[in-house]
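Page 42, continued from yesterday. The earlier attempt failed because a stray header line got pasted into the input along with the sequence. Redoing it now with the clean sequence only.
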Amino acid sequence: MGSILAPLILTAGLVFVVAGSIERIHKFEGDDCPLKAGGTGICRKTIECINGLTILKKERHCEFDGSSPVVCCPKAEFTVQAGRLTKEKCGEVPPQRKPTLADHVVGRTSKANVGDFPFIGLLMYDSAELRCGASLISSKFLLTATHCFRFKPVAVRMGTNLVTDPDADTYTIEKTHRHSDYNRYVKQDDIGLVELREEVRMNANVEPICLHTALVDLPPSTNLTVIGWGIKNIDRQEQSDDLLCGTVHPVQRSTCQAQYEGNKIKISEKQLCAVGEKDSKGEHTDACSGDSGGPLVIRQDDKYYLIGLVSLGAGCGSGVPGVYTRVAHYLQWISERVWNE
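This time it went through. Structure tokens are written below.
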């Protein structure tokens, strides 16, 4: 029986194999590739591409990696080299103990014990009323939100679950690194780095966190944990002295966008949304003022992975999803500054 061959289109040294509505190009994972709408993308496994299943149907296909489909994805601030480097650094992080947490922590009332989240840092300012969270990702760098630099942080407190702990390790900040594209009115690219003057002393209560590298949207049933020292009582606007944690779940970007239309906020692929269950008072588990820059994490196997940074919200506990900066979109930006690669 003779074989039926799909037509070949030759252009600029590339081979496009057209089979129905799918075009396959002779490019491999990590290679630059031409997007249908123009411009340059990057060949990635579907699972590592934002809206990968949708793009799989609409965009050009690269060569398979084993049995995994590889598609031409729009470029984010991500390269294969940065992703691999990030995973190598994660391999240096020791296993982290799992705190005793309920599946659904409501009302922001769950207190964390010392060492439950050894990567959490508290940014300190000249005013005790100001506070932001941050996450240790190397011996001298913490990741936070750029909007936390509106006022100048002067130090970072590590290895404690109490704001007022006199025995906590305190480190002087040498420099802050803002993302150059951040605009506080547009609310995009809300990510920044804190560089310390000296290296952090690692111990059981002070360890870095791995960075999440996949850009796939997580199922809404996924348990994520948001952590911080922010407001614990919405009515009294009372900030917490204890480190608090709560379980939240991912929300589809389209659903999240619909709830922010009135605020004229655009939710982009560089962000993710999440909200938690409702408690007896009708308040949903959520981040609040004072939690900014703090971590949104997912636990996989025996480690935590930093998936998001607290960025913005519409009130606290209202049921409107909180918006987080999606860390995986900025691996290249992070790698160039933290590991100089």
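Notes: The chain has three domains: 31-89, 118-208+331-339, 209-328.
Reminder to self: strip header lines before submitting.
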